[in-house]
Amino acid sequence: MNVPTVGAALPRPDSVITRDRSRQSHSYSLLVVLAALLLNAPALAAKTLHIAFTAAETTFDPAASDDSPSSDIIRMIFDPPLEYNYHARPVKLRPATLAAMPDISADGKTFTLNVKPGIYFQDDPAFGGKQRELIAADYVYSIKRLMDPKIASPYYYLVENMVAGAKPVRAAAEKSGRFDYDVEISGLKVLDRYRLQIAFDTPQFEFIYNLASSTFSAVAREVIEKYRDERGRVREHPVGTNAYQLLPSEWKRSSRIVLGKNPTYRDETMPLAGGAASTLRVPQIDRIEVSILEESLPRILAFQSGELEQVDVPRDLHERMFNGNTLKSEFAAKGIRHTRFMEPLLSFQYFNMNDPVVGGTSIEKNALRRAILMGYNKVREAQLAYKNQVELATQLIPPTQSGHSPELNLRPPYDPALARALLDRFGYKDCDGDGYREAPGCKPLTFTRSNPPDSRSRLQDEIWKQSMDAIGIRVEFFNQKWPDLIEMSRTGKLQSWGWSWISSGPGGDGYASLLVSRNINAINDMQFRDAEYDRLYDIAQTKPLGPERTAIYAALSKIAAANSVMDFGFHTYANDVSQPWLKNYARHPFWRTPWKFVDIDEAAQVKR
């Protein structure tokens, strides 16, 4: 990926001068005067928001995206049916493209959605020069794309074995190699031009939150059929109904993404804090420029120099901007705003259960995994790599989510001596005297950790090396770019890696679903199979949010801990800082890119 030189200014939009060319009857003298005024006046610049991502985009297709950078861009271009009330705390859903909130049956099995008339897709040649209205069939088509085996959506699990009548249609597609988008599915019905119904075989009490995620955004069938690749995906030509559109001529893959106002965007006014009335049209920002800055220092230098409007302070540079958890006085004096909050995130390390070295269900393989977890100095990682801006996770469900059990602590202790004793007990001994253990029977043993080539990962690798040396396990490192690691991880090609799961809503179901066996090659990178886990998870799906579901989630965490399939890792704190000229900005816990609701005070920006 191309990263700007440290401290370099991030790209600004080219200045433009506009004038009306339709009137040709002005006198020559007036033209001279106007020309002189224009040449000596400040150029009219587009109002531009500058932000940075820590990793590159992989796709702009809502059905195919499984990483935060791509999903964040998708969320600015496409519309799911619902969105979060921007300023409401505790969080609350509201209609995005619907005329009202969905009508949900008392048993949690049927959702009826009514699309608001008069919402249009961005103009595109796929529509043959006509305005294309958003209709109910677009959402039905978009949900069907999650079921298409050729697309291989990582979010198929959100509808698999749930939507009534979907299973035989999926099975037929797997057999024939072609998904029939015209076949009727009893659980996905277009009731009329604007109304659709989603019906499930079992209650789905958390599904309401999915309707606010980028995964359930509406795409137009004409666009997909015109631009799709051999897998049925449209990676590079997003056409949505939301406030922004991709500017392809300014997009530089893995380096810079530029979005511009969608000229066909619906009439919407800016929501203000406290519910105050507003006459400001959405969006107020003309352009959004996203720079891909993997390393921490370029991001923080760009923010400090005023070249970024907002940034999550990189944890390895925490002390550069904070005294403890308080913004330093020199930044507060400039009007910089700071918000600290626990993210709805589980950052974990996992083992590939199919791997011949660390995988398998035998007691000696479980002992190896448990010893590795007990031997790794997680507290040191929290101190050095995360500057203590984390909480140690004790279970699958974070404290921010429904289903978390505050009293449950399944984290294995950091205890190198006990780890060494466990390895001795199960036959992991140094057979050749080189200081590193072999597997039982004196077979070769090398633990391979994967990580992207960034500064935090390098620090983590150092801690892993020190920790594994202390218990006599040889460790090697496989470093590769983030998008490549995602693909390899999804297909079970990595022995061990660590990544994060962040939720788009307050439910806990997504975290529990990480280890469901039918999600292998989707989100279950652990390749974990356990019939009892699957059975309990399916029961949890039928229970409303409350103590009974929470108890089942606790049982699922215990199964994960008993199999040593993963280290529960961290829950991270975000330290969000924003410039004083960024107006109406509020950090939302489940919506990272609500940029259509913000504005820039250009006069204050010039005075910086």
Protein architecture, described:
The structure is a single chain. By secondary structure, this protein is of the alpha+beta class. The protein has 18 helices and 22 strands. Strands 11, 14, 15, 16, 19 and 20 form a six-stranded antiparallel β-sheet that branches. A hairpin with a 2-residue loop joins β12 and β13. The longest helix has 17 residues. It is globular, with a radius of gyration of 26 Å. It starts with 27 loop residues before the first helix and ends with a helix.
How would the blueprint of this fold be written?
Layout: H1 28-40, E1 48-53, H2 68-77, E2 82-84, E3 93-95, E4 103-104, E5 110-114, H3 136-147, H4 166-176, E6 188-190, E7 195-199, H5 207-210, H6 221-227, E8 244-246, E9 256-261, E10 287-292, H7 296-304, E11 310-312, H8 318-321, E12 322-323, E13 326-327, H9 329-332, E14 337-342, E15 345-351, H10 363-375, H11 378-384, E16 390-392, H12 416-425, E17 447-451, H13 455-471, E18 475-479, H14 482-490, E19 496-502, H15 509-512, H16 531-541, H17 547-562, E20 566-578, E21 582-583, E22 599-600, H18 602-606
Parallel strand pairs: 1-10, 17-18
Antiparallel strand pairs: 2-3, 4-5, 5-7, 6-7, 8-9, 9-10, 11-20, 12-13, 14-20, 15-19, 15-20, 16-20, 21-22
Query: Strand pairing plus helix content: what structural class?
Result: alpha+beta
Name the poorly predicted regions.
Answer: 1-43
Largest beta-sheet details:
6 strands, antiparallel
What is the first-to-last residue Cα distance? 31 Å
| Portion in strands | 15-25%
* Number of H/I helices: 18
Q: What is the mean predicted local confidence, pLDDT?
A: 90
Rg calc? 26 Å
- Binned, the helix content reads 25-40%
Shape: globular
Question: How many β-strands, per DSSP?
Answer: 22
